[in-house]
Q: What sequence folds into this?
């Protein structure tokens, strides 16, 4: 008979805070009549901050609970804090947008909190069932959030597309998980690793890994499972796009890394070739397909596909240095994305939000500071030194070269050069084209987000130490 | 043992008869009611096998939810079942083929029991020696070892519910809703106005 004692809940305190907080917010939203959106937005921010504090403050080096399916190590802590920052930025930036669009709904912050809960459960997953549960929780919340402006045909279409393709990807992941379970006899990562180390790879396990990778690649929108990204990014409301581009990507990449490194360390040659392929394909597609885009949200979609390709370069090396590179890449990617989307949200005239790249024409003459910071972010996204984006790429390529993946590194650098074209085109439009009509003044919240992210991006090279050390610390807990 | 055998044949016979009526009944509402009867008899068969949890789940989920849903759909949608049934004979050969394949599969499964009788021992899960019923056993494992997944599934269902409401519920300002406190709190002073109307004049 199993023991009746309560499991150790301490490692899951952040998740419990989010779950209870979301339910409390829901009760408030349902039973308080009148306009409660402001209060619930504020509560969502408080709940997320509390959860982040709990992630950092729960004592212990490596905590396992719920029969070993839930793990809280340094890697999980680091990734959870990044994810929560992504969600926080999305909630804070959404308030002004939805007010201006008169589409404020109190469910939005609640769904963001629940999606964050799913992401954190996913990051802490130490087994296939826990992985799937977290993944479904976050995906389901994201499908709803994509279509939250239900009167807009584009948003509804985006939500439906995301849902259908996401359900297909979840099915593939589940099929892979069932194959892995069938051929290894366990769903826990450590158990799977032990089976492979003892008995080697079987054909069934390889099939399982391929399907699992397909499902995970969908969630990080890596080629060839990227098709949903541009349509969903363009159709969803801009703050939702800002959310999609940051937090879910980070969480999915975290579980991608954890699964490969802790469950399949003995099968590295097998999954390495798949990861190398999707990495090269993502970088190349991200670079070439973005060139012809005129909508800035669509452009950012291709840009995020490319960036996930670069982050996967680190994972492809399968080493400590590689995982460290992925962590640094995701941290810097978060800062760059948050800043860029603050700029995109600030592209608003009196008649409404605009999304075409040409609307930025001559921005340097209208608002020089805005243009300068956006230019810095674009340079950073392109990976030009001494901005943060360069260091992000530097660490992943360094790991790839150490792992003797020279072809991958060379192709990565080449696609980075191609990608620089469309980032530089935005700068050219801002600085050298005839000015278009001016935007509304930038709201304070967006200024703050843009300011903070610019500080990280521009000044990272002065003090890279803390982030690199923290990433190293986090990566070590996986090996 | 004889009593159990008698009940088995009662439930099994009724289940088969009810299932037959489901596909032959002309009135779709009757078909759904026969389906419910078939479910009840299947639940009885489960009880005979000592799987009382499955039996209750069958009654609660299939009879309580699924069949009632069917009933709603059948009653709410205006489907012309006579027209639907017109091509019945046309599909008969195909249906018979599927039925025959199913029958062969069932015979194969039962045949394996005849060939090696010790397999039949694995068919029924043994009850725990200390008299733990299977409901209790399921509960013990679901709320201890798998409590995390159980709670996670609960959160997923919560999100599904929020999603369905967010995406479909429209508040109609013109709709009249019940406000029990306000309705009960009415008194003659606020609710009625008494006017004296002169004969031959309107208000």
A:
């Amino acid at each position: 008979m199993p023991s009746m004692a309560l499991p150790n809940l301490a490692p899951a305190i952040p998740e419990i805070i989010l779950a209870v907080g979301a339910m409390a917010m829901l009760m408030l939203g349902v039973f308080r009549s009148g306009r409660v959106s402001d209060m619930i937005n504020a509560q969502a921010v408080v709940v997320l901050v509390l959860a982040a504090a709990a992630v950092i403050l729960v004592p212990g080096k490596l905590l396992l609970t719920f029969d070993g399916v839930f793990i809280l190590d340094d890697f999980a802590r680091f990734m959870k804090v990044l994810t929560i920052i992504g969600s926080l930025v999305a909630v804070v930036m959404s308030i002004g947008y939805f007010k201006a669009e008169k589409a404020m709904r109190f469910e939005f912050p609640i769904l963001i909190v629940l999606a964050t809960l799913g992401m954190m459960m996913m990051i802490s997953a130490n087994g296939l069932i826990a992985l799937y549960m977290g993944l479904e929780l976050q995906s389901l919340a994201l499908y709803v959030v994509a279509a939250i402006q239900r009167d807009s045909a584009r948003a509804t279409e985006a939500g439906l597309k995301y849902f259908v393709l996401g359900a297909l990807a979840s099915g593939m992941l589940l099929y892979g998980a069932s194959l892995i379970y069938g051929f290894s006899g366990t769903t826990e990562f450590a158990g799977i690793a032990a089976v492979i180390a003892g008995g080697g790879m079987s054909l069934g396990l390889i099939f399982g890994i391929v399907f699992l990778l397909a499902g995970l690649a969908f969630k990080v929108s890596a080629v060839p499972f990227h098709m949903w990204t541009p349509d969903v990014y363009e159709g969803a409301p801009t703050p939702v796009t800002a959310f999609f581009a940051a937090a879910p990507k980070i969480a999915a990449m975290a579980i991608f890394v954890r699964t490969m490194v802790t469950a399949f360390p003995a099968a590295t040659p097998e999954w390495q070739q798949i990861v190398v392929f999707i990495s090269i394909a993502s970088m190349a597609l991200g670079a070439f397909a973005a060139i012809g885009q005129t909508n800035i949200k669509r452009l950012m979609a291709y840009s995020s596909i490319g960036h996930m390709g670069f982050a996967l370069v680190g994972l492809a090396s399968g080493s400590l240095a590689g995982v460290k590179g992925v962590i640094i890449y995701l941290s810097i990617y978060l800062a760059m994305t948050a800043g860029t989307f603050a700029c995109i949200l600030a592209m608003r005239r009196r008649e409404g939000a605009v999304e075409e790249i040409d609307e930025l024409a001559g921005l340097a003459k209208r608002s020089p500071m805005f243009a300068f910071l956006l230019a810095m972010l674009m340079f950073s996204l392109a990976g030009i030194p001494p901005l943060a984006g360069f260091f992000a790429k530097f660490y992943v390529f360094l790991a790839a070269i150490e792992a003797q993946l020279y072809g991958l590194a060379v192709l990565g650098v080449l696609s980075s050069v191609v990608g620089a074209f469309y980032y530089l085109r935005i700068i050219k439009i801002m600085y050298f084209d005839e000015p278009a009509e001016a935007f509304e003044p930038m709201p304070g919240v967006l200024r703050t987000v843009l300011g903070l992210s610019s500080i990280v991006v521009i000044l990272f090279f002065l003090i890279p130490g803390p982030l690199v050390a923290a990433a190293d610390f986090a990566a070590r807990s996986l090996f | 043992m004889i009593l159990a055998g008698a009940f088995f044949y009662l439930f099994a016979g009724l289940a088969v008869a009810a299932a037959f009526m489901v596909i032959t009944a002309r009135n779709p509402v009757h078909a759904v009611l026969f389906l419910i009867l078939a479910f009840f008899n299947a639940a009885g068969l489960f009880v005979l096998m000592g799987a009382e949890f499955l039996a209750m789940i069958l009654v609660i989920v299939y009879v309580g939810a699924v069949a009632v849903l069917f009933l709603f759909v059948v009653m709410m949608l205006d489907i012309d079942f006579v027209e639907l049934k017109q091509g019945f004979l046309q599909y008969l050969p195909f249906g018979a083929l599927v039925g025959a394949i199913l029958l062969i599969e069932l015979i194969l499964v039962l045949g394996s029991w005849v060939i090696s009788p010790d397999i039949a021992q694995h068919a029924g899960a043994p009850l725990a020696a200390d008299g733990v019923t299977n409901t209790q056993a399921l509960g013990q494992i679901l709320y201890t070892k798998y409590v995390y997944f159980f709670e996670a599934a609960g959160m997923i269902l919560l999100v599904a519910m929020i999603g369905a409401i967010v995406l479909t519920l429209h508040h109609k300002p013109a709709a009249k809703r019940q406000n029990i406190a306000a309705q009960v709190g009415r008194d003659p002073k606020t609710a009625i106005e008494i006017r004296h109307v002169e004969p031959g004049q309107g208000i």
About this structure: The mean pLDDT of chain B is 84. Chain B is about 70% helix and 0% strand. The interface with chain A takes residues 132, 140-141, 144-145, 147-149, 151-153, 155-156, 158-160, 162-163, 165-167 of chain B (CB under 8 Å).
